[in-house]
Structure formats: structure tokens, C-alpha cells
Amino acid sequence: MKHVGRSHPRLGDTPFLTGKAGFVGDIALVDQLHMRVVRSPIAFGRLRGIDAAAAFAVPGLVAVWTAEDVAALPPVGFRLAAAPTLEPYCQPVLAVDVVRYVGEPVAVVFATTATAAEDAAELVALDIDLLAPVLTLTGSSRGFEGETRPAEAATVRKAFGDLAGAMARADRVVEVSVGLDRDGAVPGETRGVVARWDGGRDVIEIWGDARLAPANRDALATMLGRPLAGVEINAVAVGGDFGMRGELYPEDVLVAYAARTLERPVRWIEDRREHLIAADQARAMAATAKAAVAADGRLLALDVEFAIDQGAYLRPTGTMVADLTAAMLPGPYRLEAFRAVGRVRMTNRTPAGAYRGAGRVEATFVRERLMDAVAAATGSPPLEVRRRSFLTPEEMPADRHMTTLGVPMTIDSGRYQSLIDQLTKRFSLELVHRRAIDRRAHGELAGVGTAVFVETSAAGKYEHVTLSVDPSGNLELVTTASELGQGLSTLLAQIVADIVGADPERIRVTHGASTRLGDGVGTFLARSSVMAGTAAQYAAELMRDKILAGAEALLEVPRERLTIHSGRIREADRHFGTALELADLARKMLPGGPLAGADGRGLVTEGWVEGEGMTFPYGVAVAVAEIDAMTGLVRVPRVFIGYDVGNAINPALVESQIATGAVQGLSSALFTSLDVSPAGEPLRVGLTDYLIPSATESPSVDVLITEDAPSLTNPLGMKGAGTAGVTGIGAAVAAAIDEALQVPGFTTHLPVRPVAIRNLLRKRSGKSERG
Amino acid sequence: MRAAAFDYHAPSSLDEAVGLLAEHGDDARVLAGGQSLVPAMNSRLARPGHVIDINRIAHAERPHVSAGRLRIPPLMRHVDFDTLAVDGPLGPLMRDVTRHISHLPIRLRGTFCGSVANADPASEWCLATTVLGAEMIARSARRGVRNVLAKAFYESIMTTALADDEMLVEVQIPLLSPFVRYGFHKIARRSGDYGLALCLVVYERDEDEMVKVRVGLGGVEAVPRRLGAVEELLERRQPSRRLFREAADLAAEIADPLVTADGDEAYQRDLTRAVVTRALDRSLEG
């Protein structure tokens, strides 16, 4: 039976369902210390002094560290999108002289119990001279007095074609100013890390999120002045990552350094308040976008200026979000000319990092709001405006004449109009539109909005896996890519199963395994199914060859006449009997033995893949919105998403990625934002203020997966799907709200505030609105 | 997220509990369901030196009716109202209201008297007790028992008339006439959230007219309040959509809203109009 393409049930879920999975909070080591971070309560100020004397009265206190105690540690560096000019914006592991956001680590306390650590941390007194914080993108660099760094850390510029010429030839130029508020991933499980120095081996062992274990191991080893072999990161189960977790944080460095310095295991588990003020945030941006439109309604050019609210420091992803935002702005449209200027602006807010859909969510919101404005300006239906300007299948692969993250951007494949047509037919979207029109005719505020988006995936270097068969016939695939709940293990097992001829249940996928593999890159930008999947494919092909070669020698039957099925090798033209069990073969092919194969290693193979450019999956998001006129509250009862994934190895996994992403996107569109007071104090510090939608508020999500445009960058034609659900929702919901209100261009910012809707309705109908 | 150190007391009688309160005064907090107190302590917003856990008081009373009043003891959980048997409309009313309180796990532990004593402006029970003319029975070791009417009980946000040494030992709610109709509505961002606005309307039908009209607003102002002017407008009138809109407009006009992170004054008035309209509309259903 073929496994690829089937919705095989997820492998490895049993431990989660039976409470056996081990999260970082489950780890308790003998003699461990608990770390508590003393965080700045001030958004911007000069740090005059720290008085920890009172803390030492707390029983169980072992140490209090400030910047002086960690002077040997360099600031947290870059993993992606680095440049020497960016170094002044790196975050010191503990604040030096200046505090730049509420939540910034200023000191750390180590104690024998978590409660003692918290008690002691409260008693560390900070003497801070207040400076005027910069909290929004609207202010210029004025007001940043007392700061030595320019407020604009970097400027990303991308362009092609003759912009001035296109603008001059345009029949009209349509402009929008739009923006997104700050939000974050806010997973179910907060951050945490445990470390121990094994003095016998001189290794710092770390337990925590291993999404980027190889990169973080290398960075930590460098920061701590140790050989790479002196740091080990062990994967544990994680309750949600979404790009927020896994990147190296000051806390990770402090825990590792303390474990070595204090020679006791150190544990740090973040609480929810800390998480909401100190973990990476994302999304905040403002943009002004212009479209040059020809007389026939086609797009000629896009000209976009945007600014990203980076917060107080750059994170290991450097300027990646700005870079991707700029690169993804053209989306699926044919353009003669394009220009994007992206400003990475520093503020006195929590540092911003990557969050599921980084750069694509931002770019899609700007571009698709602009496309709706073009539709309104030209009096054309929104989908018609888009159709006129789609790149056609004949234009693929389409060179975008620019690079992103250092890689030339060539859209590998895409059939955009076809996906819209299929989605429309599959879910009778004509009827959905007609129903909204009918409801409006009856006085209700209901609307439908559509956004088209291009995604990117599979960025980054290379990936490496090993595959082996043990003497009992079980297979193990080892990868540094991470299982974060997305189902990677299942998907890799399916790929290997088909090629080798084994049952997926007999294939164990050991993920996040930087302690087993020296190299590998990790999981980000929806890359793992493509990169690790292709590496697994190569390893499995080599394994099949080895198995057949061994069987040929043992059975004295030419390999062309042998097949492998469910771990049994038999002659292809015989319907009965097993010639050889895989387990028997594995025992006979042990390394060093007579049948150990040409390389003498037995049934062990490796798969290695190097980045062959990015893939560009694409999708359509359609949202239905209904507005309660009396309260301005918006409900999104239904969402439809069409997505082309090139090759759906496991359609159910793709669907669940899309459905969960859609709910996350809806959250940022309607419910969640990480607001601060005028003094920069976070207002959303618990899950009673930060309103994650529950099942009741979540829409029903209908998903159509197509495989019409396989990627040209990998043999299986795969494209990533990890961020597909989240990317288009905001723009689609915004369009649906505009239609419900019958005010094109009303929704310029997300999340949509009920107050803003009420202000409009109140103005529109005089004093008393009837509902 | 760990509470600051405190002394834990588990009295086995009410006498003992109020004795501890007398001893520790404002440094003590009574722990009933703990659904507000424990999170507040864990985030160290509340730091009582003494916690008096009343859950071990063995002869915790059952709710009962006497002298025309429903008498609600200190440990009655929100969820207990789901199965409360009381003559007349009070039982169904309390059942409707309790189902709007948060989520089941919280209703299983949180208590009625705890919510009343906590005095959150958006508490369903604070609104209900205000509208239904409840009497709060406060007890202290030194001064014994006293009764406080709901409208005198809620003083401001999270502040009641209870003295530091007093414990809320019972709430009494007068039973409702069989001719009573009621409507409750709550506007919230998510199901189970504290309401942005709440309204409870109670009146009797006399022929085609509404009499003894009571309209209470919660969540919008610092304390739940009956809107006398709105009640007067509706008294002895026949219910109609048009009248209800007029009443809701008046409510929106006379409300004295708190301004929150999520809404300015105009928006709070909008919410008031919406919630009063819908509670009134609901009173005609069923």
C-alpha cells in the first residue's frame, strides 16, 4: 500500500494523549537551582544602580547576578539576515546602563526553590532615571533622547523595473495607508529551559525547545567560549512554537552559563505574565502603498514604504521580517516595476521576532488591502481586479528580479486563477456571496472578503538525515528538523515507508537530534517537510538499494526480480511466501560483516540535500464576517481556504496546519493585540486580558488542497504548508468587514476595534443606532 | 506566579472563621472557591498574610427557603444553581444567570457568596443581587450579625460594606411572584468572559402592563445599579419594541460609564443601549 498522499493517522501522539510526553517543566534534576529574572518595570531609562542586599535575606538564595557578573558574555547575535551595522542593536543578556522595554532582563536570581527565587527577585531594587519612551511608529527619531543608536536600525530596499515610467503611464494611482498592531504567538506552554554541566564530560547539557538546536548549540558554544562538542541541546516535547519559541533568548544563555558557573543544574520556567511582556512579539507595522493601474485595469507597478516596529533590540532573525515583507509584496501579480522601502525602527517595546507567517502576513495585508482599494477605485469586482494581473502558468517559473534572505527569488510554479475557480466551485462561494447580499438587503451587516497570497517555504542551506535498520527490522530516521506538533514525524515516515517498503509504524523518527547529528539546520519558514523530506527521500532510496543488493547476494536472485513490502523481501513474480524478513537481512548485514555492503556500514544510509532555492506555494482565503450593529462586535462564522501545496504527502496534516493557522490569523484580526499604556506598560499581562478566541469564537474552516503546481526545486514537488492558514485571513476579514459595512477601505488596521465600527455607525445614522 | 508567603488557616466552624478574621483584620482573606483570590495571589496582586479557608467547615448549609426568601450559604457553588429547586421564577432566573458565569470548571469551584464579596463590577451575581433586592448577612466576632441591603453593600470597584473583621455568611433573596417575567443579557468578547455590559430586567405582568419594573445595569459603571428613571419610564406601560428602544436610549443617556482600555465613554453608552434592549427583548421570550 502506498503511504504518500494518504491521510495517515499521526504517529507518536499516544504519549501526548496518555500524559507520558515530557515537557521542559517535567524535568527536575537533583540539586537544581531555580532562576528568576528581575525585569525592568520601566520602558526607557538610565539604570543608575541595582541594590540586591535585601534579596540575600531570603532563605535558599544562592546568587544574584547583574550585568557585571555576566560581562564575559557577548550580546545575543544573529542567526539570519545579519550585518555588522546591526551589532549595536543586539541585546545584552542583562541590561547594561540602559533599560529599553518593560520586561527587559536586568538581573537574575538563583535559589533552591522557585518560590524563594521569586521572593528574592522582588527584593532586588532598581534605581532607574526615567527617559521619554518611543512606543509607536508614528513618532520620528525625535524623542529618542538619551539613546546612542539611530532609531532606524536598517533600511531594506528592493526594486525592479522603471517605476517612474510606470507611474507616469498609469491611468490612475491608488494609495492606501494600512497597518497591523503588535501581536504574538502566545502558545499554550510558556518558554522554559533546564541546563546542567556534566563535569565528567565537560559538557553543558540543555533541555528545551530544539526547533533550532544546531544553530543555538553553535551560538551558545561561541558565546560561552566552548567547543561545539561542549554544548548539547536535547529536544523535549513543546506546547506550541510558531517561530516565537526556539530562537536563542537571553534567558537561555543565562541558564547555560549559570549551570556551568554555579556547577549546579539550573531551571527556568517562564510564567504567563513574563511571556506576554518578554517573549518575542511580532506583526506591528505601518505601510503606505501605491498601485499604478493601467486603463484596462491591470497593475503596472507597486510602490510601498513600510516601517516595522522592531522593539528595543534585534533578535536572532535580524532583519528577516522586513526583508521577507518587502520581497513578498508583489505576491501573485505581474508587475512592470516595483519598489519597496522597509524601515526597521527601534522602539521601547518588547523586541519583535518571527511569528508564523512572518513577512507574508504583513505583505499580504498591505497588498490585498491595496487591491481592494483598486477594485473600489475602478468600480470592478475585487476578484476581477486580481484576475487581470495574475501571473499566468505560462509565465512560470517567474523571475522576480530580486533576492530575499540572500536567495534569488524565482516563483517556481503557480496556477492562481485555477485555484480561485476550484475553491469557488468546491464550496459554492457564489452562493455564499449571494447570501451576504441578501442579508444586507434585510438590514444585516454581513460581508464576504477574499485575499490571494503567495507563500514561501524551504529557505535555508541544507538538511541532513540518517536512516538505519536495526537487527529487529525497525527503522530509525534521525533529523535535526523538529516535531512541534505539526506532524513532521508522520510525514517523514510516510516518505521513507513508500521507498523502502516498510510500514510507517515501524519507522521511528528521532527529531531535533542535534546530539546525534553534528549538522542540520532546524525548522523555520515552513521548510522542514521540503528539506528534511527530500533528505529522507534520498536516504530511503539508498537504503532500498542496499537492501536489494544484500538480498540479491543472499538469495542469489537478481534484484530486478525482488520487491520489498511491509518489511518483507520476496520475489516479485511469486504471490506466496516471504523470501527474507528485513530483520534477518539486517542481522546478516551488520557493519563489518561479510554482507555489510560496499561501504561496510551495514543498513545505514545518509540523506543530504542542499537548498535549491525557495518554493512558492500560494493560496486564497475567503472570510465571511457579520457585525452586530449595536455593539460593533464582529463574528467570522466561516472561512474558506484554498492552498496549493505541490504534493500533499499527508493531506490531513496539511488541512490541520491550515485550519489552526486560520484561527491564529483570526485571533490577530479580531481579538488579540499586545497593547501598552502611554508609559509603555503592557496592558495584556494575562489570558483574561489577552483574548485568545475559544472554540465558540472560532470559525468553521473549509480547506481545499490542490497539487496543481508542484515545486521544481525538489523531486517530490513538495511545498511547505506551516504558515498557509495564517497568511491571508487578516486581509480577507478586513475585506469582509468593509463589505458588511459597505464602506470600501474602512478597515486599515488590525485588529479591528469594535469601538471604531461603532464610531462609524454612530456617525452614519445620527445619534441612535437601531439594531 | 507563586503566591507570597501566607499563613493558612482551615477553621472547622463559622465561629472559628470570624474569630480568625477578628484577629487578623485586613491582613486576612476568606478563601471560598478561590477562582478570583488564588490567581490574584499567584500574580502577587493580592498578598494577604492570612488565608482563612472555609471549605472545611463541615456542616456547610444547603440553600433553603424560609420566610419567603431564598437563603444562600457561603459555600454554594455557581454550578449548584443549575439544579436549584425554588418555587416560582427565581429558580429559572438564577439558573439562566449562572450559565453565563465563566466556564464549567470555574463554576464547579467558584461560590455565589465569594462573587458577591469580591464585588467585581461585571459580576453576574452582583447585578442579580442588586436587582432582586438581596440582603447580605455579615457576621463578625465582636458585633455579631447585621443585614446590609444590596444597594448599600456594593460601594465601589471590588469594595463592599463588609468591615475587615466581617464575613459574608449568607445572602437572602426574596422569592419572585409567579407573575414575574425577566430578561438577562450579557455582552462579552468571548463566551465565558466577564461581560462588557450586563442587564437584568424583572417585572410583573398586570393585564397587559408591566408593573414593579426593575432594571439593573452591570459592567458599565463602578458598581451594578438599578436605573430608576428607566424603571419609571416602563412602569405601567405595555411592552413594545418601541418602548424598549426608548428605555434603552434613556439608559444609555443616564449611565455613568467607566472608561476602559477597550472602550471610550460613547462606546460604553452604546453597549448600555444594546444590553438593555436585549434584556428587555428577552423578557418577552419563552
UniProtKB/TrEMBL annotation, chain A:
<dbReference type="InterPro" id="IPR016208">
    <property type="entry name" value="Ald_Oxase/xanthine_DH-like"/>
</dbReference>
<protein>
    <submittedName>
        <fullName>Xanthine dehydrogenase family protein</fullName>
    </submittedName>
</protein>
<dbReference type="InterPro" id="IPR036856">
    <property type="entry name" value="Ald_Oxase/Xan_DH_a/b_sf"/>
</dbReference>
<keyword id="KW-0560">Oxidoreductase</keyword>
<dbReference type="GO" id="GO:0016491">
    <property type="term" value="F:oxidoreductase activity"/>
</dbReference>
<dbReference type="InterPro" id="IPR008274">
    <property type="entry name" value="AldOxase/xan_DH_MoCoBD1"/>
</dbReference>
<dbReference type="InterPro" id="IPR000674">
    <property type="entry name" value="Ald_Oxase/Xan_DH_a/b"/>
</dbReference>
<dbReference type="InterPro" id="IPR037165">
    <property type="entry name" value="AldOxase/xan_DH_Mopterin-bd_sf"/>
</dbReference>
<keyword id="KW-0500">Molybdenum</keyword>
<dbReference type="Pfam" id="PF20256">
    <property type="entry name" value="MoCoBD_2"/>
</dbReference>
<dbReference type="Pfam" id="PF01315">
    <property type="entry name" value="Ald_Xan_dh_C"/>
</dbReference>
<dbReference type="GO" id="GO:0005506">
    <property type="term" value="F:iron ion binding"/>
</dbReference>
<dbReference type="Pfam" id="PF02738">
    <property type="entry name" value="MoCoBD_1"/>
</dbReference>
<dbReference type="InterPro" id="IPR046867">
    <property type="entry name" value="AldOxase/xan_DH_MoCoBD2"/>
</dbReference>
<feature type="domain" description="Aldehyde oxidase/xanthine dehydrogenase a/b hammerhead">
    <location>
        <begin position="18"/>
        <end position="132"/>
    </location>
</feature>
Automatic annotation (TrEMBL), chain B:
<dbReference type="InterPro" id="IPR005107">
    <property type="entry name" value="CO_DH_flav_C"/>
</dbReference>
<keyword id="KW-0274">FAD</keyword>
<keyword id="KW-0285">Flavoprotein</keyword>
<dbReference type="InterPro" id="IPR051312">
    <property type="entry name" value="Diverse_Substr_Oxidored"/>
</dbReference>
<dbReference type="InterPro" id="IPR002346">
    <property type="entry name" value="Mopterin_DH_FAD-bd"/>
</dbReference>
<protein>
    <submittedName>
        <fullName>FAD binding domain-containing protein</fullName>
    </submittedName>
</protein>
<dbReference type="GO" id="GO:0071949">
    <property type="term" value="F:FAD binding"/>
</dbReference>
<dbReference type="InterPro" id="IPR016169">
    <property type="entry name" value="FAD-bd_PCMH_sub2"/>
</dbReference>
<dbReference type="GO" id="GO:0016491">
    <property type="term" value="F:oxidoreductase activity"/>
</dbReference>
<dbReference type="InterPro" id="IPR016167">
    <property type="entry name" value="FAD-bd_PCMH_sub1"/>
</dbReference>
<keyword id="KW-0560">Oxidoreductase</keyword>
<dbReference type="InterPro" id="IPR036318">
    <property type="entry name" value="FAD-bd_PCMH-like_sf"/>
</dbReference>
<dbReference type="InterPro" id="IPR036683">
    <property type="entry name" value="CO_DH_flav_C_dom_sf"/>
</dbReference>
<dbReference type="InterPro" id="IPR016166">
    <property type="entry name" value="FAD-bd_PCMH"/>
</dbReference>
<dbReference type="Pfam" id="PF03450">
    <property type="entry name" value="CO_deh_flav_C"/>
</dbReference>
<dbReference type="Pfam" id="PF00941">
    <property type="entry name" value="FAD_binding_5"/>
</dbReference>
<feature type="domain" description="FAD-binding PCMH-type">
    <location>
        <begin position="1"/>
        <end position="178"/>
    </location>
</feature>
